[in-house]
Amino acid sequence: MENRPVKMNNHTNLLQLEEHIYNLVDVQTPNVYRNLFPYDEVPKIAFNDRIVPHNMPEEIWITDTTFRDGQQSRAPYKTEQIVKIYDDLHRLGGPKGIIRQSEFFLYSKKDRDAVYKCMERGYQFPEITSWIRANKKDFELVKEIGMKETGILVSCSDYHIFFKMKMTRKEAMNHYLSVIRECLETGISPRCHLEDITRSDIFGFVIPFCLELMKLMEEYKIPVKIRACDTMGYGVNFAGSVIPRSVQGIIYGLITHGGVPSELIEWHGHNDFYKAVTNSTTAWLYGACGVNCSLFGIGERTGNTPIEAMVFEYAQLKGTLDGMDTTVITELAEYFDKEIGYRVPERTPFVGRNFNVTRAGIHADGLLKNEEIYNIFDTDKFLNRPVLVAVSNTSGLAGIAHWINTYYKLTADKQVDKNSPLVQIVKEWVDEEYEDGRVTVLTDEELIDVITETCIKLGISLKK
Ligand SMILES: CC(C)C(=O)C(=O)O
Q: Manganese as a keyword (predicted)?
């Protein structure tokens, strides 16, 4: 990244100055960064060791794409499902609206019905915004429905400009600017989705384009948002890495050279290289106010940044949940499982069936002494999910004792331990099961049966 001694307080002057420095580079042939993306080899991460300073905004937030990118990649939700999820996003985001906006398709009558029903709720947050085909008719529709903002696709890498749109950079930029002007003419605030930014020419296309967008914002006095879309998940957050893959480099460039204020920058990540969460956190840390996410990360291919992950990233960075009700996350996971038929993979952090279940006997022994040893935080308090020990051949006496204590919610005076006869008899039964060649974990029902039978034999009760 170039290190320029430009420091001015006046926004307009800064834009004028930067405009002379960063003109559009209208290349004849696409720059596909073959050094970074050889295609027949695994992509490369390059370093120039330019260090970007931390610049986390005072206020940061989450925006939601469950009903847009999320729905793009699966069967559509029913209208009543959308309304229920929207209600829950409102509760999860809390009174300060940490989940600030949610974007909706407006293509079909069914899409629009869902929007009307959600709007009827009258919530301030998440604000309902749209995603449309970028034409005058659709801008009018956004206005008619009473929305203030719409997303517009402005793909910015040469992969898209040359190969998909069959345009030059200049043609693409002029086309985008005319569409965005049309949107502003309608009085609607455009949210410009800079698709594939992590393979784009940041100084040759993205910055000159943003400078033009900021000029339009000045002219119309309507906010123009920049959504930095890491469409293929190529973004990296390593200190000293090179743009266009460097998340902090992109955010720094947008702010310092593109003149885009933090509150108008959002990061939209994908998880192709397992980096969606850390890249989104990085975007916050280096100056983007918004991170765009979907519930459980459901989105194209490997998915988007999961909302629930960023709720806990927020709390860790800010030291407070700021009123977010995290127990709603568990309710939503149950709703997706029971009503929508979508089960999140068992080991998924915060929501998977096994996210706080331990199996190994040695861990269970620790848990039995003090649950903090093997639980990330008070998962019962924040997610209504008490830490659990599943019983298998490796659970040992301590694991079985912990399962009984947790399952039957035994008070301290009633709790069993590895010396209890009940625990020892159940352990013998478990061992026999596995000696006979069993390879699956024991179900709750099987354990309940054997425990009930043993309690009768021993003349004890686990009731409170
Ligand atoms: C289609 C675009 C806006 C997108 O969602 C992405 O780049 O991931």
A: yes
